Structure formats: C-alpha cells, structure tokens
Amino acid sequence: MASDTTPPEATESIELTLTHHGNQVTFSFAQGATIQDLSDKVDNDLSVPPSTQKFLIAKLGLLKPPFKDPSLALSTLTTKKITLMGSTAAEVSSLDAQIAAATAPRRPSPIKAATPARTRDWKKIQDEAQYTFHTLRPLPYLPNSDRSLRFLERLRDDPGIKAAMRTHKFSVPLLTEMDPAMHTTHESRTLGLNRNKGEVIELRLRTDAYDGYRDYKTLRKTLCHELAHNVWGPHDRNFWDLCKKIEKEVERDDWRSGGKAVGNEEYSVGPDEEVHDHGGWEGGEYVLGGGGAEVVTSSAGGQVAAGNLSRRDILARAAEERVKRARAAEEQGRERDGGA
C-alpha cells in the first residue's frame, strides 16, 4: 500500500484579510501565493481592476500594480493591516458617464425678452433730499462714537422712517445722540428730546453703562415719538393721535420687515404708559457737545464736525446740506433726461 508522501504544509492554505470601503474581506490562497495572486483575486472577486488597485500595507507603504516585486510572498503579510483603495469597474463606468454628461455641449437656452428698466421715482428722490435728517452727530467724548453714528445712519435710512418724513414733510437739521448722564433721575430716564419743533432731535442710544446700546425697535419708536413733537408740543390727544399714526406708517412702509410689527401686534407709546420725554422742548440759543475739533465720517453726509454746535451752526449746516442734496437730485434728473 502506497503512502502519501506530500508534506502537510504543502496542503495548508493562507488566509489574508484586507479592508475595502470600510468592509473586511478575507481571501484564501495556496502556500507560495504572491502579491500578484492577490491582485488577480481582487480583480476577479471584487471587480476592482488592477489599474485602480492600491494596497496600503503597514510598514511597507503603498503598493500598486505593476509591482516592483510581484513575487512578494503573501505569507509575510498575514499579520499586517492591509487596506485596498480602488474603485470597481461599475464605479469607474458611472464616473466616466457623469464626466461625459457634464462636458457634453449643451443647447443654448432661449434668449429671454429684455425686461424694461424700472423708471426711477425722481419726485421721491427729490423729496428724500429735502425731508430727512440733514446732519447726524454722535457724541465724540463717549467710547465707540463710530457705532453711534451707524445707529443714527440706520435710523435715517430706515425705509419706514424715510416714508414718514416724506409724508409729513419733516426736515430735521440735526439728529444727535443724548448723553445717558443727562435728563436722568431716580424715577425716570428721558429717551428722547425734540428742540424747537424739529430743529434738533436727541436720542438716548446707549444704556446707562455707556458701553451698551438700546434695542433698535425701541429707538425707532422713540424717534416716531419725537417726530410727532415737530407738530404738537404737549402730550395731548392731538399729539398721541399723530404719534400713533406715524408709528403705524413706519411699520407699514418698512419693507425689510414685511410691514409687520414684531409678533404681528400693534404697539404705541400711549398717555397711560411711561412717556419718552416731557413734551416738545422750546428755548432760545443752545450749544450741544463738548470741546474739541474731532471729525466723524458719515457714510452719506461727508464729514460731521463733532465739536461744539450752536443753534446758528446747526441751522446753517442744515441749509447747506439741503442745497447739496437738492442739486444732486437735479443733476440726476438732467442726466436722465439727457440720456433718454
């Protein structure tokens, strides 16, 4: 009886595990299998062609066909972490199709008919040049005066405020910041002042700590209150009717908030609530601000002197700004007519 002389190790197989797309795959090979055998197995079983195969092997680095040493024995890799990077033939075909579709020439889209240019409302432009706040002035001796200037600019340029100014033909020479230390008692804090029916409007932009600013909606309602004092001084029924009307107009014409008040509720500072001030303030000559010749730059009104301003200075500067704005509006109108 013949005996089997084949060495037992010759019949033993080699198991090799690798990771592909996050999944572990185990292959069996005969003793003596090489890295080239692994490549052929991956091609047949996983449909990853040699052209896309990349084997990342711990301590050996990145190996890919054609291998520098195709006879590398798999028996030396069984304890090493192996990661297969490569796309299947189906994935490569799908990618090629996407590239072809993306780079294929496309039929030109039909040319849309030109939309007529919207006609500019030149009457509105002229009114906005006249009915506005002609000078904006923060307090230069308080910190962050540039931020105060931005608050004043935002109020001046608010669509609702601009519409109300045109409707009621309000032309205010100076909109300025109120010092939080002024007009303050233990019982109340004045939020705004209107001097001489609209020559100057002061707003308490800051909190009592100087470094914080009040809510914009509160500042805007305060401004509506002060604009009503352009017409009525005391807080009588005539004043409150106009104040409520201005507030409604501002909310309605503020296209940025959709013409709706916060929470879709109407709100007005009425005579039964804490008032913003003590009525329209009337007086003779007055001076605003402290010393110094600091200059603050406004985004729309050029440079605004931030030193002392007397009543005469304020009114003279407002007249100059009105003339400048009116001339600019006229020049725009002439350019429009000339180009028509």
Q: How many domain units?
A: 2
What is the H-and-E element order? HEEHEEEHHEHHEEEHHEEEEH
* Poorly predicted runs of 5 or more residues: 258-275, 290-307
Largest sheet: spatial strand order? 2-1-5-3-4
In helices, the fraction of residues equals: 25-40%
Q: Whole-Å distance between the termini?
A: 117 Å
Approximate strand percentage: 15-25%
- Major sheet characteristics: 5 strands, mixed
Please explain how this structure is put together.
This protein has 340 residues and is an alpha/beta fold. The chain folds into two domains: 12-89, Phosphatidylinositol 3-kinase Catalytic Subunit, Chain A, domain 1 (Ubiquitin-like (UB roll)), CATH 3.10.20; 122-339, no CATH class. The chain has nine helices and 13 strands. The strands form four sheets. It has a five-stranded mixed sheet. Strand 3 (54-57) and strand 4 form a beta hairpin. The relative contact order is 0.10.
